Design the sequence.
């Protein structure tokens, strides 16, 4: 598999990489330099090994959020489900992060 970044307004390919993490690092660096608005028209595609099939993975705000929160692939993002993110965190909650009130016997201190 490989990953590509495209600008949906211009139909230009921006970058390509072998892994999603490399592609997200490109997005994160661009957002850091130019702000989230700069990637509003970007879409990340995952291409099959032979390049014959491509599918959209994330676009715009969801892409910027995914790039800002490494290790969240395959989980809910705040863009798709606001309750998935604690209000104090820029990233979605991980499966090990407690999101509810602490209960007696809970292994997670608050």
Sequence:
């Amino acid at each position: 598999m490989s990953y590509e970044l495209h600008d949906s307004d211009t139909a230009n390919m921006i970058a390509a990489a072998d892994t999603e993490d490399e592609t997200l690092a490109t997005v994160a660096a661009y957002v850091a330099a130019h702000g989230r608005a700069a990637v509003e028209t970007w879409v990340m595609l995952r291409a099959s090994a032979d390049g014959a099939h491509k599918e959209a993975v994330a676009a715009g705000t969801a892409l910027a959020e995914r790039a800002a929160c490494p290790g969240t692939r395959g989980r809910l993002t705040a863009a798709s489900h606001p309750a998935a993110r604690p209000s104090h965190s820029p990233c979605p909650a991980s499966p090990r992060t407690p999101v509810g009130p602490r209960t007696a016997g809970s292994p997670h201190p608050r």
In short: The two ends are 41 Å apart (CA to CA). The mean pLDDT is 76. The helical segments are 20-34, 60-68.
